[in-house]
Amino acid sequence: MLTIEKKSLKVGKYVSTEHVDTVIKTYKQERWVHNSERIGKEDSLSVWYSIEELEEFMAKSRENGGDGIRFYFAAYPENYTEKAGFAGRQTLVLVATKSKELETGVTNKDIYIHDGEGAKILAYNTGSICPPLCGKPPKPKPASADDWGDIGVTIVDRGEKGLTVV
Fold first, then answer.
1. How many domains does the chain have?
2. Which domain holds residue 98?
């Protein structure tokens, strides 16, 4: 009997709260503040998708030979009108990928599917970006409660423009 061992494609890892806080804080201080100034409003800090839609996208990706998803950093054009408040802000675009081993190493190719009108990329976008869609904070609970986790709370020094708490 021939047994074929499937090689793991995992590249990420679980990280600590401190790691998440550090990379979010670094992003806010080194990217977000400049992006916000350039577009003239607070840029988005996060994108939310439901587990249901992520599972659906992963299933469709697998159906089409996918074994990974690439998350592209992107921005809506200034004239974007499909969703109010999204114009000019950052987003994430999810694109299904298929790994391919080359002589130089493994590459991950974007997947295109045929739908009768030609080849179209298998991609997902327009999640709930914050801002502007940040929701309302929960009602305060005792100090020991941790509904928001304080992840990413940062004071950004904007020089002559003052401080911003994000």
1. 1
2. 42-135
